TrEMBL record:
GO MF: coreceptor activity
Protein name: Hemojuvelin isoform X4
Regions that span the bilayer: 179-199
Source organism superkingdom: Eukaryota
Coiled coil: none
Presence of keyword Transmembrane helix: yes
Species: Vulpes vulpes (Red fox)
GO biological process: BMP signaling pathway
Xref: PANTHER family: HEMOJUVELIN, RGM DOMAIN FAMILY MEMBER DRAG-1
Gene assigned in the entry: HJV
Membrane found in the keyword field: yes
Species lineage: Eukaryota, Metazoa, Chordata, Craniata, Vertebrata
InterPro entries per record: RGM, RGM_C
Length: 200
């Protein structure tokens, strides 16, 4: 909607989750319809929501456990409207070196075994669905029990985004992937949220 909304860029980093776009504005500009793009914060420094009402899109960016995560609600036709060549990306430069998890550092961070990771995740995610398995994966790989908060926040975002709560819990069998006791899943949640985990 070039005739209505000024192009806006939002940039966030760990410990820098601004409540405004890069130009300092909190909406789409002074043109008619500019208010259909807005940014607000529910918890300064930890939770920002960007709403683009003109395309039915909401993005929630959170900082939790020293990491950034985001949830997105977007119409399928909007999500598929852009080719790979177009410059519309959520994560342009990859993970900064300070946010990468080195395999060799894992044992020094305090290794957590799979049973402990499951127990920690079960406390806030009692249903063993895709959110639970993503939580187990993140806690196990990072060695940081605080990653449980990010998975719980993703589930809360999904509750807010989904009109049909029957579809809230995604199970491995829903995706055609059999679950065995030795299987860890890091599922892609149908556009609801993507959890970036960088490993060197």
């Amino acid at each position: 909607m070039q005739e209505c909304i000024d192009q806006k860029v939002y940039q966030a980093e760990v410990d820098n989750l601004p409540a405004a776009f890069e130009d300092g504005s909190i909406n789409g500009g002074h043109r008619p319809g500019g208010s259909s793009l807005s940014i607000r914060t529910a918890n300064p420094g930890n939770h920002v929501e960007i709403r683009a009402a003109y395309i039915g899109t909401t993005i929630i960016i959170r900082q939790s456990a020293g990491q950034l995560s985001f949830s997105i609600k977007v119409a399928e036709d909007v999500a598929r409207a852009f080719s790979a060549e177009q410059d519309l990306q959520l994560c342009v430069g990859g993970c900064p070196p300070s946010q990468r998890l080195s395999r060799s550092d894992r044992s020094r961070r305090g290794a957590i075994n799979i049973d402990t990771a499951k127990q920690l995740c079960k406390e806030g995610l009692p249903v063993e669905d895709a959110y639970f398995h993503s939580c187990v994966f993140d806690v196990l790989i990072s060695g940081d029990p605080n990653f449980t908060m990010a998975a719980q926040a993703a589930l809360e975002d999904a509750r807010a985004f989904l009109p049909d709560l029957e579809k809230l819990h995604l199970f491995p069998s829903d995706a055609g992937v059999p679950l065995s006791s030795g299987t860890l899943l890091a599922p892609l949640m149908s556009g609801l949220f993507v959890l970036w985990l960088c490993i060197q």
